[in-house]
């Protein structure tokens, strides 16, 4: 339950999702729920302790984010909404509820409660997420192959990223140029300064062994009405469990994240 609430809060707040940190935050919530029943720990039932536990959970899950306050407030809102929904389902099922140690108990079958929680979670994220207008943003491990060479990157999967190959319509992985240099033999790839002049870099690289793999990719971004990125046709890209095949990798001359939490991004 705690994991679902943290996950829903991140999605509704438009925050990058880190599954391990979400799991750690949920684990803290579970430990807190157990600690309430230990001898001499009754003070944990106090409202301030409950609030502190919730804040610590969001700190673990989303600490360091610029949207930490938003995530925290949304988390408490989701907790109230999900708790109210499950309470209503329990009453509609004709089951009473009791309280012990500040925790509500229901005689309803656990499977029904879990199913109700899952349905409520899906409803909250779909309805409220659409109203908030946030895209889903999640970190995944990306593997890029070029002949016998392979590199691993941390990639942001962002449903708001619509950059695609204009020829095939397939998604494009945008990666920091410095992070993909290991794909190329010495003098076989673009220099960092060349990425700021993609047309000039293409002219030089087109004459090399991998000349047919290189191309220019047009893009638009905030403050850029029509820009160009140097792009490479790879032999394979896998992001998380998704195998994208031989898609383009566009090389960015600048970091793609503000805090360095990821070095590549791709649309979902």
Supply database-style keywords:
268 residues, two-stranded antiparallel ribbon, 6 helices, aspartic-type endopeptidase activity, Sigma-E processing peptidase SpoIIGA, alpha+beta, Cathepsin D, subunit A, domain 1, membrane, elongated, 10-stranded mixed sheet
**Biggest sheet character:** 10 strands, mixed
Q: Overall mean pLDDT score?
A: 81
Strand content: 25-35%
What is the distance, rounded to the nearest whole angstrom, between the alpha carbons of the first and last residues?
26 Å
Query: What is the count of β-strands?
Result: 12
Question: How many domains, as an integer?
Answer: 2
Q: Helical percent range? A: 25-40%
Give the structural class: alpha+beta
| Number of continuous helical runs | 6
**Rg, alpha carbons:** 24 Å
General form? elongated
What is the string of helix and strand elements? Answer: HEHHHEEHEEEHEEEEEE
Low-confidence stretches: none
Protein name: Sigma-E processing peptidase SpoIIGA
GO biological process, one term: proteolysis
GO molecular function, one term: aspartic-type endopeptidase activity
Keywords: Membrane, Transmembrane, Transmembrane helix
What does this structure look like?
A hairpin with a 2-residue loop joins strand 7 and strand 8. Helix 1 packs across helix 2, helix 1 crosses helix 4 and helix 3 crosses helix 4. The mean pLDDT is about 80. The protein contains six helices and twelve strands. It has two domains: about 130 residues; about 130 residues, Beta Barrel (Cathepsin D, subunit A, domain 1), CATH 2.40.70. With about 270 residues, the chain is an alpha+beta fold. It is elongated and about 75 Å long.
């Amino acid at each position: 339950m705690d994991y679902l609430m943290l996950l829903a809060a991140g999605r509704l707040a438009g925050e990058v999702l880190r599954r391990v940190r979400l799991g750690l935050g949920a684990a803290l919530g579970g430990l807190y729920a157990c600690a309430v029943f230990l001898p001499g720990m009754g003070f944990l039932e106090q409202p301030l302790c409950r609030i502190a536990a919730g804040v610590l959970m969001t700190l673990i899950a989303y600490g360091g984010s610029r949207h930490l306050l938003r995530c925290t407030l949304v988390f408490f809102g989701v907790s109230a909404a999900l708790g109210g929904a499950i309470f209503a389902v329990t009453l509609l099922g004709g089951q009473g509820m009791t309280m012990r140690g500040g925790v509500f108990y229901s005689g309803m079958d656990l499977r029904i409660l879990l199913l109700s929680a899952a349905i409520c979670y899906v409803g909250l994220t779909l309805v409220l997420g659409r109203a908030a207008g946030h895209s889903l943003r999640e970190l995944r491990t990306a593997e890029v192959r070029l002949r016998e060479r392979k590199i691993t990157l941390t990639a942001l999967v962002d449903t708001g990223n619509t950059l695609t190959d204009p020829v095939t319509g397939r998604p494009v992985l945008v990666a920091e140029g410095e992070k993909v240099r290991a794909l190329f033999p010495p003098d076989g790839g673009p220099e960092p300064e060349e990425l700021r002049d993609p047309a000039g870099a293409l002219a030089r690289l087109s004459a090399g062994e991998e000349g047919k793999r290189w191309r220019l990719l047009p893009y638009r971004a905030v403050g850029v009405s029509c820009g160009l990125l140097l792009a490479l046709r790879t032999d394979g890209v896998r992001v998380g469990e998704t195998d994208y095949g031989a898609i383009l990798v566009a090389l960015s001359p600048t970091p793609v994240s503000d805090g360095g939490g990821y070095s590549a991004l791709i649309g979902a």
